[in-house]
């Protein structure tokens, strides 16, 4: 993960990494275990913590395991993404090489609705006349 948020983690992420409840982290903030503004900060409703403060408080072993798992997951995603991009390019080449277009006209809902609206306005479609219509306003017991 690159960018300005590199090295920052939410309390939920830390709880997942170390197998603890995120309320444990909030309690530690309340007990002044972290320096607010430097090690932890609340952004809206979400608490974030720096990587250094997390490792200092909970250790590096589980965090390193998490980073390795995340790196493997990212590599798999990238391979899938690259593979699907190649497949898409192959499919485009195959479909363009066929050169045949479908003769069926596809109408969107908006086109169909517009045709009905135009027919209504031009008078081709007549309205429905109600012969009898009334509301029952009496309360029944």
Description:
With 141 residues, the chain is mainly alpha-helical. Among the domains are: 8-59; 67-95. It has five helices and three strands; from the N terminus they run E-H-H-E-E-H-H-H. Strand 2 (40-43) and strand 3 form a beta hairpin. The protein is flat. The N and C termini lie far apart (67 Å). The mean pLDDT is 77.
Comma- or semicolon-separated keywords:
141 residues, mainly alpha, three-stranded antiparallel β-sheet
Provide a compact summary of the structure.
This protein has 141 residues and is mainly α.
The description of the largest β-sheet is: 3 strands, antiparallel
- Average of per-residue pLDDT values: 77
Number of helices: 5
Spatially, the strands of the biggest sheet line up as: 1-3-2
| C-alpha Rg (nearest Å) | 31 Å
Portion of residues in beta strands equals 5-15%
Shape: flat
DSSP strand count: 3
Q: State the assembly state of the protein chains.
A: single chain
- Structural class by secondary-structure content: mainly alpha
Question: Uncertain segments of ≥5 residues (pLDDT<50)?
Answer: none
The N- to C-terminal Cα distance equals 67 Å
Listing every helix as H and every strand as E from the N terminus to the C terminus, the arrangement reads EHHEEHHH
**What portion of residues is helical?**
40-55%
